[in-house]
Protein: Ribulose-phosphate 3-epimerase
Organism: Mycena sanguinolenta
Amino acid sequence: MPRAIISPSVLASDFGQLTAECKRMIKGGAEWLHMDVMDGHFVPNITMGEFPQGLANPRLMSLQALPFSHSPRRYSSCSYPRAQGSFAFAKWVNDIADAGGALYCFHLEATTDPLSVIKSIRARNMKVGVAISPDTPSTAITDEVANAADMLLVMTVYPGRGGQKFLERCVPKVAELRARFPDKDIEVDGGVGPKTIDVCAHAGSNVIVAGTAIFGAPNPEEVIAGLKASVNA
Ligand code: DX5
């Protein structure tokens, strides 16, 4: 099973200090940053309809950052988006790539042609993630789609808001995907923290998105270290 990757969801951060919050998380041991950009279409609420990198109006864009350089300039704009687009993604791929994105993850539910979305992402030399919502079975991710992707995301809340209750019923999907794809990154996102990480890690997830649990903690680096230890145990 791949090693732990911790990806704090900045939805739970102080948006007024986004740059400092991003730097704080990377300094605190996070490998990636997870940013939810929502414009009220795919999900009912709005977060940052337009991401600082000038991404125009995505539906549900959850940007996860994969820092491939530690230059302060790049942190200042948090320009490492790993985007989770959920609608009309083809038009966002270039924006994300131009902003320095390393991985683009999209929701399976919002496309009838995942392979063409994957192709457009690869054309911009980004890695690919495929996300499924709580009501979507793991079998909806075919071998063909999974083999064309680098990461599979099992949402453990309904997309759209941070701070929701963890849906343990989604965890078996992690185990199902881990059994099918022992070496692939498998991510969980939503309500994950010290109380819920063990069941996720035991099922086989190695990429951990956590917002409230990390940003709400007096000592985020301790939470990050604890999540990592649980996955790597
Ligand atoms: C929901 C978002 C999640 C959310 C996680 O659509 O994708 O990333 O921010 O936040 P917590 O960890 O607070 O549930």
Summary: The beta strands are 5-8, 33-38, 60-65, 82-85, 103-107, 127-132, 151-155, 185-189, 207-210. Confidence is low (pLDDT under 50) at residues 52-88. Residues 9, 11-12, 34, 36, 62, 157, 159-164, 189-192, 209-213 surround D-xylitol-5-phosphate (CB under 6 Å). The longest strand covers residues 33-38.
